[in-house]
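Now produce a polypeptide, keeping tokens residue-aligned:
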Amino acid sequence: IGFLPQLLDCQARCRNDYLAMLKQAAEKYKRSGWGWLWVEGGAYPRLEEALDVGGFGYPAMTALNTRKKMFSLLKGSFGETGVNEYLRALSFGKGSTAPIRSKELPTLKTNDPWDGQDGKVIEEEEIDLSE
């Protein structure tokens, strides 16, 4: 699971670069039979808590075995080399694992799909506090 930065932190080009890197890794390790997904960091706080993600910024990555209820957290850099080394170690059965922090994985709500555009700052109306 790739946890990518929010659009206001990264914008569309940055996110697309991360997604291209993840697609390249998925292609390289397709024989491993792994499933791949990504989410926006902060969108699923209960999932991040269960997988010990967050608190150190995004992007982040975890590998999850739902049957064994174990996960592995990428502790290196979230770049092509760091992700490749992490996945290579996992493919050889190496790398540290830990049990998920809850008895069950949280149920995830459905979010609207990303439209591929940059994030937009929502401007709030100023309130006059002088009265």
Remarks:
- The chain has three helices and five strands.
- Residues 7-28 form the longest helix (22 residues).
